[in-house]
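Example for tutorial group B:
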């Protein structure tokens, strides 16, 4: 009888220890610093791989290579770092996730800074890796498809609509409790591939200001650069409105609860 009591006591103590460990708050490094590092590193490698795929694809026909490279890079990086930072790697994603209650306000600015710095570092890495001739021919993988004001309307709409689509995939798959899915990395990666194949010839399919800023800064190409901020941010806000008003679960929706 005493042995049974001792075993029961040991089990209870073990359970209490596990509970104590689980309830113990994580360190400042893991709560604040590590997620920002993950956002910087993830964005850096995404922009690096994406830029290289464009720079080394100047003479190739079609957009299949950049589409696959960007989409697969997103899928791999999201899968690897989701448990560290949430794997945003995109300022409009961070804005949308915050507005849907998926992150704290205090982390928004650090995330945005980390992503933009990561984008610049990734563009710098691509410049070091590729030949000078190819780099110049591709304008450092900056978005150069817009040549006249007549194209602006379609390009802004394209960036807005396609960013809205991929942001909805992120929000529904990772934030919305009713539709969360472990397949988010695959879903987001596929959406990026589809968007680039569909809209690459209209706007270049940036969908990410961090992806646009790095190459523009390194190559000194700022023509119509604002399109790649206004379109993606506008698209993410539309996605937020759709979730907050119609598609989100009760915690996210602000009306019709």
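The residue assignment follows.
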């Amino acid at each position: 009888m005493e042995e049974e009591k001792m075993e029961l006591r040991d089990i209870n103590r073990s359970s209490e220890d596990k509970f104590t460990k689980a309830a113990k708050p994580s360190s400042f490094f893991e709560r604040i610093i590590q997620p920002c590092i993950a956002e910087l590193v993830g964005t850096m490698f995404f922009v690096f791989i994406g830029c290289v795929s464009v720079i080394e694809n100047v003479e190739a026909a079609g957009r299949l290579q950049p589409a696959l490279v960007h989409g697969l890079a997103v899928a791999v990086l999201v899968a690897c770092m989701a448990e560290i930072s949430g794997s945003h790697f995109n300022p409009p994603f961070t804005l949308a996730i915050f507005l849907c209650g998926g992150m704290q306000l205090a982390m928004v600015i650090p995330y945005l800074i980390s992503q933009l710095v990561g984008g610049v570092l990734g563009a710098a890495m691509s410049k070091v890796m590729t030949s000078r001739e190819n780099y110049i021919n591709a304008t450092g993988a900056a978005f150069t498809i817009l040549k006249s004001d007549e194209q602006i309307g379609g390009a802004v709409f394209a960036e807005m609509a396609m960013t809205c689509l991929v942001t909805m995939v992120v929000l529904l798959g990772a934030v919305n409790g009713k539709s969360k899915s472990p397949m988010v990395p695959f879903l987001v990666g596929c959406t990026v591939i589809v968007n680039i194949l569909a809209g690459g010839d209209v706007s270049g399919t940036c969908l990410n200001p961090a992806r646009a800023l790095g190459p523009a800064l390194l190559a000194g190409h700022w023509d119509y650069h604002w399109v790649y901020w206004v379109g993606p941010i506008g698209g993410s806000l539309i996605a937020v409105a759709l979730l907050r008003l119609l598609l989100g679960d009760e915690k996210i929706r602000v009306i019709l609860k």
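The chain has a mean pLDDT of 90. Compare this with the pattern of hydrophobic and polar residues in the output above.
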